[in-house]
Amino acid sequence: MQKPLLAALTALAIAGLGATPAIAAPHTAAKTTAPHSTPAVKATVDFAGTVSLSNCSGSVIRFPGSVDTDPALVLSNGHCLETGFPAPGQVVTGQSSSRSFGLLNSAGTRVATLRANQIVYATMTDTDVSIYRTTTTYAAIKSSYGISPLTVQDTHPTAGTAIKVVSGYWKRIYSCNIDGFVYRLKEGSWTWKDSVRYTSACNTIGGTSGSPVVDAATGKVVAVNNTGNEDGERCTDNNPCEVDANGTVTVRQGINYGQQIYNIPACFTTGNRLNLAAAGCTLPKP
């Protein structure tokens, strides 16, 4: 997992960078025009809809079937839970929470504090995800702050896709591509399936855990950022290793990873309610 906040600040100080968050200007997408065609406009990927947690990053998300009056949901990592890391095989559902989130606008300025009333779903088994329900709605957030949620893509992403890892904690945007997918990613006691491997330009650090991984062309969230191999060790904490279907282990020092979320929308029904028994829902169950 990406280092906790205090460890990240220590590492930055050792590296001579200090503890001041790096600030990235909002990304303004370019427009390209083919001859005799309608101009193609890429999505603008900035900080709007992202959030900062006490130790991690996250985002306000909606599913393709969500409506404006639904309670707003916040996506982060399972290892970012205020109660600590879920054990292998553990799934948390319906747990009360009063976690607070700093809501950011497009420039990365904190404009509001959102508050959770429930951990809807969280696990570090097969994936590394937490989903919080807040006390407000998408419509109320839009009305008060002009900010819309990020939409979760419900189809498997594609290798080579240009992506942005948007950290609400550091107010920094990392740009790279999806390098490929990992059959199994093992780190310490945990194993994750079909993880997203980034190209080396996304050199994420502690505090970026839980950041939305956004398709640069569509603006949809295709994964949630969660870990990277820091020291070149094999399958240890903070040093995940790749394991293919034949059991061959590969270590890629300095490479970072995210967990896919395209399978999550199938587990939610009307009113953004979790239904792990829904047809097509493949998330681990308690």
CATH architecture annotation of the largest domain:
Beta Barrel
Named CATH topology of the largest domain: Thrombin, subunit H
Question: What is Rg?
Answer: 18 Å
- The number of distinct structural domains comes to 2
SS-based class: mainly beta
Oligomeric organization of the protein chains: single chain
Low-pLDDT segments: 4-39
Distance N to C terminus: 22 Å
What would your notes on this structure say?
- By secondary structure, the protein is mostly beta strands.
- The protein has two domains: 128 residues, Thrombin, subunit H; 103 residues, no CATH class.
- Helices cover 6% and strands 39% of the residues.
- It contains two helices and 20 strands.
- Strands 3-4-5-9-8-7 form a six-stranded antiparallel β-barrel.
- The radius of gyration is 18 Å and the shape is globular.
- About 13% of the residues have low confidence.
Concise structural overview:
The protein is mostly beta strands and 286 residues long. It has helices at 5-14, 138-145; strands spanning 31-32, 40-41, 50-52, 57-62, 71-76, 91-96, 100-104, 110-123, 129-137, 150-151, 162-167, 172-187, 190-198, 212-215, 221-228, 241-243, 249-250, 256-260, 268-269, 273-274. The strands form 4 sheets. A 6-stranded antiparallel beta barrel has the order 3-4-5-9-8-7. A 6-stranded antiparallel barrel has the order 11-12-13-18-15-14.
